[in-house]
Design a protein that fits this description.
alpha/beta; 4-stranded antiparallel beta sheet
């Protein structure tokens, strides 16, 4: 089978062998009411209220949404406003921890009799995609199409990030149990775990654990960015093409991140909703790179202090990896459900001054979907909606391979995103 294109990056998997550890409890958490794609939640608490760990503090009537729970026990100090990286705002519940971590009495393992119960409890868990997209998981699992394969995305192809790898190495049984639970509740006959070959210990452990489960297959993938992109990993593991305008479910596939499916296992055992997550902390300003389990809403400053980061040297601060990561504007911004890493770098890595396009075609060669960024840029400059549609601008997944490959140092991926925004605005009129 022909492999899709991409780029080969330096791995920088410095924390791959570093066991995870819990972060000391923060004094204050700031929990936004929108940590997912879809409708924001409304606060269910007010200043002065006492809250407990796992207590629901935000919810929405929207189907594409996910409830939000307190990660600490303590007192609600304020209902503030959170400004996300894309400029949108939502309410934010600020909770002062009492240090006791008293668990809400309503926390208990869920009881499930059928698919409807399963989808209900997954929604109540607050689970959203933990690989970056933050799509509410219960919506994805409610697909009406016939699903024959559960695909577990364990590629973790971005440099630096190793939190998924640590999940697989430290608790492979959670991964397998979560897979089996989802397969059973949704009547999915088989599963495939797609994992890059630069994670040998995880591959060994998962291969051993699946030996008695012929319905689960471990598929070892080349180390090539963006191996973890949904369309890419579906093609490389199953040979199926998700066409323009389609969802994976239209090809009979549901894709779940490996940490998401491990959470399902823990939730079924304990009933504790999504109140914490493991993330990687790294970068050349960090003296103690680590994988750390962090309460949702913890200020980034607290995480970096734990990792012995020299804050005075930080010039570039990211949620996620260097290719698709999102800039963090404020050290007091919180850790969100979808965050799998914090990178603190001493260089801002601003692109050098771009020169004229030399029409070398490297951006086209690097693109996994073989888009033509040069033609997209021309159409965008002309504000030509028809040409943007013809060049499939909406297929761009913003992986950044084109910018990385461009010898003229042009902001190719950024132009693609502006073109997508323009096209979307024009076609919605």
């Amino acid at each position: 089978m022909k492999k899709l294109h991409g780029v080969r990056l330096a791995h920088h998997k410095n924390t791959q062998t570093y066991a995870s550890a819990p972060l000391p409890l923060p004094k204050l958490v700031r929990i936004p009411m929108q940590m997912h794609i879809g409708a924001p939640c409304s606060p269910l608490v007010k200043p002065g209220d006492t809250v407990l760990v796992g207590q629901k503090i935000g919810d929405s009537t929207g189907f594409v949404s996910a409830p939000i729970h307190s990660s600490v026990s303590g007192t609600v100090k304020a209902i503030g406003t959170y400004r996300a990286s894309n400029g949108t705002t939502c309410p934010m519940v600020e909770i002062e921890s009492d240090g006791a971590q008293t668990v809400s009495p309503g926390i208990h393992p869920p009881v499930i009799y059928d698919k409807t119960d399963f989808l209900t409890v997954i929604r109540e868990s607050g689970l959203v995609g933990m690989g970056g997209a933050s799509f509410p998981t219960h919506v994805k699992l409610a697909a009406q199409q016939r699903i024959d394969t559960l695909l577990i995305n364990a590629a973790e192809c971005e440099p630096y990030i190793t939190s998924d790898n640590r999940q697989m190495v430290e608790a492979p049984d959670e991964v397998i149990d979560g897979i089996l639970q989802v397969m059973r509740c949704l009547s999915i006959p088989k599963a495939v775990i797609g994992i890059e070959k630069n994670k040998p210990e995880a591959i060994r452990l998962l291969t051993e654990r699946t030996a008695s489960h012929p319905e689960i297959r471990v598929c070892v993938l080349p180390t090539l960015y963006p191996q973890g992109a949904e369309k890419v990993i579906i093609y490389h593991t199953l040979g199926r093409i998700v066409m323009e305008g389609q969802l994976p479910a239209d090809q009979g596939v549901i894709v779940m991140n490996v940490s998401s499916v491990a959470f399902v296992s823990r939730y079924f055992q304990t009933g504790m909703p999504m109140v914490s997550r493991m993330l990687t902390v790294d970068g050349d300003t960090v003296d103690k790179p680590c994988n750390v389990i962090v309460p949702i809403g913890t200020p980034v400053r607290d995480v970096l202090t734990y990792a012995q980061c020299d804050l005075d040297r930080v010039k570039k601060l990211l949620y996620g990896g260097p290719m698709m990561g999102v800039a963090i504007p404020d050290l007091d911004d919180p850790v969100l459900k979808a965050n799998n890493a914090i990178l603190a770098l001493s260089k801002d890595f601003a692109l050098p001054e771009a020169s004229a396009c030399i029409h070398c075609g490297r951006c086209i060669a690097a693109c996994p979907l073989r888009l033509m960024p040069t033609e997209i840029a021309k159409a965008f400059r002309r504000k030509d909606t028809a040409a943007l549609e013809a060049n499939k601008v909406m297929l761009c997944m913003n992986c950044g391979c084109c910018t990385y490959a461009c010898p003229a140092k042009r902001p190719v991926a950024e132009t693609n995103q502006l073109a997508k925004a323009f096209y979307t605005a024009q076609t919605k009129r």
